[in-house]
Design brief:
This protein is globular. Helices cover 49% and strands 14% of the residues. The protein has a single domain, classed as Winged helix-like DNA-binding domain superfamily/Winged helix DNA-binding domain (Arc Repressor Mutant, subunit A), CATH 1.10.10.10. By secondary structure, it is α+β, with helices and mostly antiparallel strands. β2 and β3 form a beta hairpin.
Length: 79
């Protein structure tokens, strides 16, 4: 995942890689669909991805508008 956090990737690419990585981790734990709970705050996600928390919020908003993800509170479904 570290290569996905490099500065030469866009915020959207970093967030997408983060969600894919998280979804794959849940699948290894036996969760078979792409529905999971974000255990980290947006601030923690932003820190890990080297982004501002506002950027994380905007990217998630774009993903919701594009119907890439569906979310309510911290519950997330990736399509």
């Amino acid at each position: 995942m570290a290569s996905h956090l490099a500065g030469d990737h866009t915020a959207d690419e970093r967030m997408a890689a983060f969600l894919v990585d998280l979804g794959e981790r849940y699948m290894r734990l036996g969760v078979r669909d792409w529905h999971f709970r974000l255990s980290m705050s947006r601030t923690d996600i932003a820190n890990q991805l080297r982004l501002a928390s506002e950027t994380v919020s905007r990217v998630l908003g774009r993903f919701r508008a594009q119907e890439v993800v569906y979310s309510e509170e911290r519950e997330m479904t990736v399509s």
